[in-house]
Amino acid sequence: MKKTILAAAIATLSTSVYAVELYNQEGTTFSIGGHVSANLNGSEQGDTDVGTNSPRINFNATQDLGNGFTADAKGEWALNYLDGGDNAFTTRLGYVGLTHDELGRAVVGTQWAPYYDVAGVADMPIAYANDFIYDNHGALGTGRADKMISYRNGFEFGEAGAFNFGLGWQGANDERTLDENNDLTGHKYDDRIQAAVSYSIAGATLGYTYNTGDFTTFGAAKRTAESHLVSVKYGTYGKGLYLAGVYADNENMNYDGSTLLADSNAYEALASYALDNSLNLIVNYEMVEGKQFANWQKETAREELALQAEYNFTPKFVGYTAYQFDLNDANNNETDDKWLIGARYYL
Question: For this UniProt entry, which residues form the secretion signal (predicted)?
């Protein structure tokens, strides 16, 4: 794995772009990163109020072990600073990684999964972005995967492009709990595995990822969660033209509200253009359709189109606004268009 791929892996998985480096000596670094945001939210069916967009704080450390090996560790917590109470921090990420120039990268802990490397190409805007990959993403390893071991590597071929791949494994995990009636709720998961591959050339990347694992819901038979997902992207988000598309063919992965879909298809498309003055104009579309166990009739679970804009007042201070159209009026569904305007400050 060439150093250019190694540098990209460490930048993406170990540090924040705007992290403040507090220590850098004798091969050891330590930095603090993250961001805070505040926005005004509104919708057709709801009241206007103040909200946030995934505020977080993280701590990052790296250590040069010699012989081409670099160890790194990350802890990241979501911030709940608008409401009081005991849950001011909740865990987003926590892992230890080991990277070698040629042997690749291994990570243990709660982390962004290899599946997300392929699926997340349209998950870029601050306000409204990819939702379907976050349906129970920690347990199913489609976003920030809980308790995962992963391995990634890549190879560059000069002008012929670059090939990258990743593997992930999550062990058995029983998440069932007793509810207020002393009944078991939740899921018990068996081993879950995933693989992701991508090929990049001339600014374009084509990717494929597969994810599967069995789980048991109390009172129901064992089921298999499975996903085949392909994606394509062109360009770099926030720099000129960026295009991305995602298609997923899933079983027992997505939800219609709180109802698990036995079979579903998900579509995501994103187009953005960042002007020289850093104004980024964005349009994105998402649809999930699937069959419920109750009737096995394919229905639209959600369908949305958003118009968005982001503007960097400074490299660390970004303003954003968006309007999302709810297009899911099938079967007399009551639509609910949403809007917001806000700002994000990167630490």
Answer: 1-19
Q: How far apart are CA 52 and CA 82, in angstroms?
A: 8
pLDDT tops 50 at residue 245: yes
- pLDDT for the residue 6: 47
Q: What pLDDT score was predicted for residue 219?
A: 65
Tokens of 58: 């993280």
Which residues 6+ apart lie within 8 Å of 113 measured at CB? 141, 142, 143, 144, 145, 148, 150, 168, 194
**Distance of alpha carbon 201 from alpha carbon 161, whole angstroms:** 4
What is the CATH classification number for the domain harbouring 237?
2.40.160.10
Please give the residue that has the higher pLDDT: either 17 or 282: 282
pLDDT score for 331: 75
Provide the 10 A C-beta neighbour count for residue 339: 20
pLDDT digits (tens, 9 = 90+) for 102-161: 999 999 999 999 999 999 999 999 999 999 999 999 999 999 999 999 999 999 999 999
At 275, list the tokens. 């002007």
Query: Do 52 and 73 meet the contact criterion of CB atoms below 8 Å apart?
Result: no
- Residue 218: how many CB atoms within 10 A of its CB? 12
So what's the pLDDT on residue 83?
67
Number of domains in the chain: 1
pLDDT for the residue 187: 82
Amino acid type, 346: Y
- H or E stretch covering 127: none
CB 20 within 8 A of CB 104: no
Kindly state whether residue 290 falls inside one of the protein's structural domains. Answer: yes
Q: Does 134 reside within a domain?
A: yes
Which structural domain, as residue segments, surrounds residue 269? 6-346
Q: Please check whether residue 206 lies inside any domain of the structure.
A: yes
**Mean pLDDT (the chain, rounded):** 90
Inter-residue contact 300 to 330 (CB < 8 Å)? yes
- Those residues whose C-beta lies under 8 Å from the C-beta of residue 189, and which sit 6 or more positions away, are 139, 170, 172, 173, 174, 175, 213, 214, 215
Residue 298 counted as domain residue: yes
